[in-house]
Amino acid sequence: MTRIIIDTDPGQDDAVTILLALASPEIELLGITTVAGNVSLGHTTENALKTLELAGRTEIPVHPGADRPLRRAPIDASHVHGRTGFEGVELPAPRLRAREEPADSFLVRTLMENPPGSITLCCIGPLTNIALALQREPRIAERIERIVTMIGAWSELGNITPCAEFNAAADPDAAALVFASGVPIVVVPLDVTHQLHTSRARMERLRALPGGIGAVVADWFAFEKRFEAEKFGTDGGPLHDPNTVLWLLRPDLYGGRKVNVMFETESALTAGMSVIDWWGVTDRPRNALVLRDVDADGVYAELTERLGRLERP
Ligand code: BDR
Ligand code: CA
Fold it and tell me: How far apart are CA 212 and CA 244, in angstroms?
C-alpha cells in the first residue's frame, strides 16, 4: 500500500489524478492540499471538494494552502482551464467543506505523526505549500518517502513562457527550495506529457466507460486540451498530472535517469526554467529521477481501466 497526500490546483487534469488515486486500491489517499495555480485558491479548493463528491469519497480531508507564490506576483492558467478551472463540465456546488487547518500545518503534522518514509507527496501544482511546510518544519525532509511531481521540462522547454513549464513558472522559488531539500524526487516533465495526446480514439474509449466518470473526464479534456491541440496541431493535447499517480502504480511504463535538477530564480527572462543536467556535465548531486520515456498506449490503457472502476453516486 502506498500512502499519499495530493498537493494540487484543480484544474481538470488535477481532478483526473485525484480520481485515478481513488480508483486504485494500492493507494491510500490521506488528504488533499490545495494551492493557487491554474485558477485561484477559492476555485482550486472548491474543485477538490467537488471531485471527492463526484467519486463519493467525502471522508478525505481537503486543506487549503497558499493563495499566492512565495515571493512574486501570481500567474494563472485560466486561458487553458477556463475561469473556474472546471470548464467542460461544471459540477454542482459542493456540500462538503474544506478543513480549517491550513495545508502546511496539515503536511507537517501528518508527516511528523507517521513513521519516517511512510508517506509520498504527489505534487501537481506550484510547489508553494511544500516549500512552506519545509520552512515551517525542516525535519519533514527526512520523513517524506518521496515527492512525485509534474514539473519542468528538459528538451520541451516551456508551455507558459518560452522556457518554463507552468508549475515551475508559477513559483520558481518554491521549486528551487523543494529541489534543494534532499527529499527523493521523481519528475514528470513535459518531455513525457507531450508524448501522451488525448486523441479522439482514446477519449472515445473513456467516454464509453460505464459508471459515468469516463464521460466527465472526456468532456473535461475536450475543453482543457483544445488549447494545446490547436497550438501543436495535434489530435488532442498532452496528458500531464495523472502520470504522477500512474508512475506509482506502474513504474514499468516509464523510463528515466537520476540527474541534477535546479530551477532558475533570478533572471526575469527565464524564471522557472528547469535546468536538468541530463548528460552529467556538472558534479551537482543527482537529486531527482527525471522521466523521459513512456509507453503511451500502456498509460491510456491503465488510466481507462482504472477510471472505469468508479461510479458516480
Ligand atoms: C501543469 O500546469 C497545469 O496547467 C496542469 O494542471 C499541470 O499541472 C502542466 O504544465
Ligand atoms: Ca496541475
Answer: 24
φ, ψ of residue 282 to 5 degrees: the values are -115, 170
> CB atoms < 10 A from the CB of 303, how many?
28
- Please tell me the number of the ligand nearest to residue 79's CA: 1
Distance of alpha carbon 88 from the chain centroid: 19
Going from the Cα of 14 to the center of ligand 2, the distance in angstroms, rounded, reads 5
The region that residue 190 occupies, defined by phi over 0 for left and psi between -120 and 50 for alpha, beta otherwise, is alpha
- In the sheet with 62-64, reading across from the earlier edge strand, the strands are 62-64, 27-34, 2-8, 119-123, 144-150, 185-188, 288-294, 254-259
* Cα-to-centroid distance, 83 and ligand 1 (Å): 15
Q: Does 274 contact ligand 1 (Cβ within 6 A)? A: no
Below-50 pLDDT ranges, the chain: none
Whole-complex ipTM: 0.99
pTM of the predicted protein model: 0.98
Ligand 1 near 80 CB (within 6 A): yes
How crowded is residue 312: how many other Cβ atoms within 10 Å of its Cβ?
A: 12
Catalytic residues: 240
Distance 156 CA to ligand 1 centre (A): 14
- Smallest-distance ligand from the CA of 6: 2
Q: Is 159 in the pocket of ligand 1 (CB under 6 A)?
A: yes
C-beta 240 within 6 A of ligand 1: yes
Nearest CA to ligand 1 atom 10: 166
Give the pLDDT confidence of 179-203 residue by residue, as tens digits.
999 999 999 999 999 999 999 999 9
